[in-house]
Design goal:
Jelly Rolls; seven-stranded antiparallel sheet
Length: 440
Amino acid sequence: MSYERPVRLVAFGVACLISGCIFYIPPADAGLAPIDAGIVVIVDAGIDAGVDAGLSCDAASCPSGCCNGNVCAANSLNSCGLNGSVCLVCDGSRADTCSSGACRCGANPACVAGQQCVSGACTSTCGGGPLCGTGQRCVGGSCVCDATSCASGCCEGATCRTSSMVTCGTGGASCVACNAMKADRCEAGACRCGQASSCSATQTCTTSTANVNTTAISFDDQQDRLVVPNTAWPTSTTNWTFASWVRIAVDRNEYSAFFTIEQPAGHSTEYNELVTTGDGTTLVLWDHSTGAAITLGQLTVGTWYFAAVSVGPGGAASAWLAPQGGTLTKRTGTVAVVDHVEMSYVGASNFAFTEFINGSMAMARLWNGVLSDAEIQAEFASPTPMRTSGLIADWRLAATSSVGADSSGLAHDLILNAGATHGSTPGPVFTGTATRVCTP
């Protein structure tokens, strides 16, 4: 005699997808009752998520049911099992109930392949005719499509259809055809436009791209410099990355510092700077030994640029620059490293009163770690940090009311210099993600 039963994890084959895992149970295993041609069970990926989150479902916590992830489920056709076993979905054409943790047809075990459960009994025919097809069951001597036989699809007459734009529905409901002018997909058995329901009679489902506008703060004096708290810096000063959006409003034909680290204060001994040269527009990574160690590129007055620099072990350095809407260009070199940081600034240097920017900065970020090219590209495209591992600070520099606020949650707020006065300016504009919406 063969029968279906809830799964016990003696699987010989496992395949995991984004949506879950498939366990294959062989036709027979030692000490277990025989199984008809094996059972394939799709287990929701939420099982792992529940375990990882510190929650659990097992025989002790779920003796009379089965585990659907970390949830103990009562026995039904869609969750069948006992003693905390992984829930099995019973085949609605071969079983009509789940009893004592087993899929059953009436009071009998689930039907074998080639049979269907009709009125609590297994049969090889339906009303004297052939056996019903996939997604159907025999009711009153006729093959029908309903919620039991076609749980994941919709019914077109007596035929079970996979849910799609042409046949949309679930739970055995009658299929509907989505209007391509009002919807762009069928999801969970419903016609939808983007993240919303299908459009109304007077609307059309169209593609929309909403840009993301930002704000920035402006600098025009050496007193406007912002001080990075020393507590923000990691122990190592040869494993860091700084990135920010920068814009020159006025070419001062003078050194203009966007970011500096110094030791001792006033960088009389060691320093690294993201600064322009004396011409006011050539952006470089400058150190105390070489001078302009890496040239990032030329800045155009009034244009926003994304600039990033990293310093790794041995002073191995990388620098990236791109205008808004442009392509990142990478430069590499070696810098003389700063032994330890005593002072660090945003928007100016403490070296000379002339080393300040007349322009704006926005979305400055500092990491304990060297970011990869792909990670820098992701930062370039996002108004908020994409890499959170090793993030020291996220200074949005977006409002004059909270100029140096750190949005990382680590409370590494920039310290305003005495006499600082910052203005507010429009920041870079980010292209939004294309979405489908109902218009007008």
